[in-house]
Design a protein that fits this description.
CATH superfamily of the largest domain: Aldehyde Dehydrogenase, Chain A, domain 1
CATH architecture of the largest domain: 3-Layer(aba) Sandwich
CATH topology of the largest domain: Aldehyde Dehydrogenase, Chain A, domain 1
Shape: globular
Strand order of the largest sheet: 10-9-11-8-7-12-13
Number of domains: 2
CATH class of the largest domain: Alpha Beta
Number of helices: 14
Structural class: alpha/beta
Length: 426
């Protein structure tokens, strides 16, 4: 067996002990991590500058540099997220169903941690803190592998967190950082140790993981999000929502990449939308109908399949809401899509028929975020339909088990008719 496998087997065995850690002990650990991050912020920023300098020399694209940056503002957001988690209700071992099957035969469904979770994430060092905090609150041990572009920052954050945990009831092994890319291949073979794998990266990378491991994989690949401007849209509202969805943080997976516009409103909105986007240095790629109202480059079919993560947006003029829904379900990534409309019937139709984890009305796609949902933070966004969907917060890092407490009952008595079930919810 390889060294990582042996290491993870020991961590997996130890992880079962976390089930007896109290809510107060978990919150104390989170509090100490928060204080340690704050006390060591200058060290964190200095290490982050090393990553930024190396990335700049390597001509890393600007959107990636924005994700890579960990400054005072982002750190304050992280500390606020930890504070919010501490204040949240204890998520583990909550009874979600209690049923009397028969007298003195009581069934309970109880939430519990998933166990040992592996998270492979892109060059976003703040994700390390968010993921770690959520896993501590849910009593899940976690194996982290961050992008190599953030190696100095990730190493600094992990050391600070590990040192803080050493003075708590939680083991330092609660959070393990892998630093070498080659370790990913070994990690994928550890299906007997890792209960869930959460990737945050390109579509190609996610597909690679799914095809090369027996570990269950949860996550999303591309973030191809849409805003559909309905024929009953408020134009002023639509323009400000589209601009925010595209430019508020262009490198995020919930940034809009394609805008669909009803043909009846195209002449009214496109000139003003063009001015608003051009003022933010957004490059527009348009369909032939779009080109009638503004000067832009032609959008190809491949453009509608592209996650730009840059100041680029595709625009397509369509005939009706059915075409909008059909386009999104075909070209989208099932992440987050929005309709701008004042028509309740159209809004309901769009929100029900659009096959995405998040479907919005009259608001920015940038709201698709665990922190903005009040989850404290998120470990990622899932575009799948099983277990968890959308921003994955505390609930998405829990599973459940059934407890059945009896008093000598045997199934043969029920099969023979000697006893019978009464099925009463308690």
């Amino acid at each position: 067996m390889n060294s990582i496998h042996e290491r993870l087997k020991k961590i997996k065995s130890e992880s079962f002990k976390s089930l007896t850690i109290t809510p107060a002990e978990k919150n104390e650990a989170l509090s100490k991590i928060s204080h340690a991050l704050s006390d060591n912020k200058e060290f964190i920023f200095a290490e982050n500058q090393k990553d930024l300098l190396a990335a700049t020399k390597a001509s890393i694209p600007t959107p990636v540099l924005k994700r890579l940056l960990l400054d005072e503002s982002k750190l304050n957001d992280l500390l606020k997220g930890i504070s919010d988690l501490i204040a949240m209700e204890e998520p583990c071992f909550k009874t979600t169903l209690k049923r009397e099957l028969d007298k003195n035969l009581i069934l309970e469904r109880v939430t519990c941690p998933i166990g040992l979770i592996g998270v492979i994430f892109e060059a976003r060092p703040d994700a390390l803190v968010q993921i770690t905090s959520l896993c501590i609150k849910t009593a899940n041990y976690v194996i982290l592998k961050g992008g190599s572009e953030a190696k100095y920052t990730n190493k600094a954050l992990h050391k600070i967190i590990s040192d803080a945990l050493s003075d708590t009831a939680l083991s330092e092994n609660f959070v393990t950082l892998l630093e070498n890319r080659d370790e990913i291949k070994e990690l994928l073979t550890c299906h007997d140790c890792i209960d869930l794998l959460i990737p945050r990266g390109s579509n190609e990378f996610v597909q690679y993981l799914m095809e090369n491991t027996k570990i269950p994989v949860m996550g999303h690949a591309d973030g191809i999000c849409h805003v559909y401007v309905d024929e009953f849209a408020d134009i002023k509202k639509a323009i400000q929502i589209i601009k925010d969805s595209k430019t508020q943080y262009v490198a995020a997976c919930n940034t809009v990449e394609t805008v669909l516009i009803h043909e009846s409103i195209a002449a009214k909105i496109l000139p003003d939308l063009n001015n608003a986007l051009k003022s933010a240095a957004v490059k527009i790629l348009g369909c032939p109908e779009t080109e009638k109202y503004l000067k832009c480059e032609k959008a190809t079919e491949d453009d509608f399949k592209t996650e730009y993560l840059d100041y680029i947006v595709s625009i397509k003029v369509i005939k009706n809401i059915d075409e909008a829904i059909s386009h999104i379900n075909k070209y989208g990534s099932h992440h987050t899509d929005a309709i701008i409309t004042e028509n309740d019937s159209n809004a309901k139709k769009f929100m029900l028929q659009t096959d995405s984890a998040g479907v919005y009305r009259n608001c920015s796609t940038r709201f698709a975020d665990g922190y903005r949902y009040g989850f404290g933070a998120e470990v990622g966004i899932s575009t799948g339909k099983l277990h968890a969907r959308g921003p994955v917060g505390l609930d998405g890092l829990l599973t459940y088990k059934y407890f059945l407490n009896g008093n000598g009952q045997i199934v043969d008595d029920y099969a023979s008719g000697k006893s019978s079930f009464n099925f009463k919810n308690l």
